[in-house]
From TrEMBL:
Residues 240-250 have a biased composition (Gly residues). InterPro entries: Arrestin-like_C, Rgp1. This is Arrestin C-terminal-like domain-containing protein. Residues 176-250 are annotated as: Disordered. Keywords: Signal. Residues 1-25 form the signal peptide. The keyword Magnesium does not apply. The keyword ATP-binding does not apply.
Length: 250
């Protein structure tokens, strides 16, 4: 199928691939799919897990904003943010391909179905502010050869990040006959029961896993002081329950 974006990351000899399938843009409240593939061009590689998540980032041009005391400092280390950026939405990570060994010439493949929560602002690039979204795949890997220690002493990480173009959309009203969904984001993982030979894909069985994200009214207080304010005041208004970014649903 046609992919909007494909990103490759390498931790020798593992190659991690992440691609957005079938669409050129996504709409909050509607499903879309991401394909995650891990393959080896050398020896066997142990994969502890591949974590899949999404996030939205707002960036303001610092020259247009009067900094406050709390926002004058640079973002904290490890946040993945540049100066003037902050998260406007961020999901928990869903783990796929847990505790598998990728043999040379074989492919471990997972299709992940994702639904962004309704009410998110669309992607935007302006002179003063911009809003961007990304899917991130992170694989924790180790050598799986006979000489390697078992369990591994250290793990290396491969990162692949795919940009998402998000459309503006009205709040999606759930149909009455629809099975109730988690408040926030839904993740569904379609995975092969065993690694498949490259390049032909194998048949998949569907596994459901839910990931909650913060409702709109709770986004503002949980963003932290990484940026000097936001023009997206609508994100911090409206009636919604809950608070904080949640974890996996039961």
């Amino acid at each position: 199928p046609r992919a909007m974006a494909a990103v490759h990351a390498r931790v020798s000899p593992l190659i991690l691939e992440c691609a957005l399938l079938d669409v050129d843009a996504v709409t909050p409240g509607e499903d879309f799919s991401v394909r995650v593939r891990a393959r080896s061009e050398g020896g066997p590689v142990r994969v502890r897990a591949i974590d899949v998540s999404w996030h939205g980032v707002e960036r303001l041009d610092p020259t247009w904003v009067k900094p406050t005391v709390a926002s004058a400092s640079a973002p904290k280390a490890g946040t993945g943010l540049n100066p003037g950026e902050r998260y406007i939405a961020k999901s928990a990570a869903g783990a796929v391909a847990e505790d598998v060994v990728v043999q040379p010439g074989r492919v471990v493949e997972r299709d992940v179905r994702i639904r962004l929560p309704p009410g998110l602002p669309p992607s935007f690039r302006g002179a003063v502010a911009r809003t961007s979204y990304f899917i991130t795949c992170v694989a924790a890997t180790a050598d799986a050869s006979r000489e390697a220690p078992d369990p591994p002493i250290t793990w290396e990480r491969a990162h692949a990040r795919v940009p998402l173009r998000v459309r503006a959309a009205e709040r999606v009203v759930e149909k009455k006959n629809r099975e109730p969904a988690l408040s926030g984001t839904d993740f569904e993982f379609a995975e092969s029961p065993t690694p498949s030979p490259s390049p032909s894909p194998s048949s998949s069985s569907l596994h459901a896993l839910g990931v909650k994200t913060s409702p709109r009214s709770a986004l503002g207080p949980n963003l932290g002081p990484e940026s000097p304010g936001s023009p997206l005041a609508a994100l911090r208004s409206g009636a919604a329950d809950g608070g904080g970014f949640g974890g996996f649903g039961a």
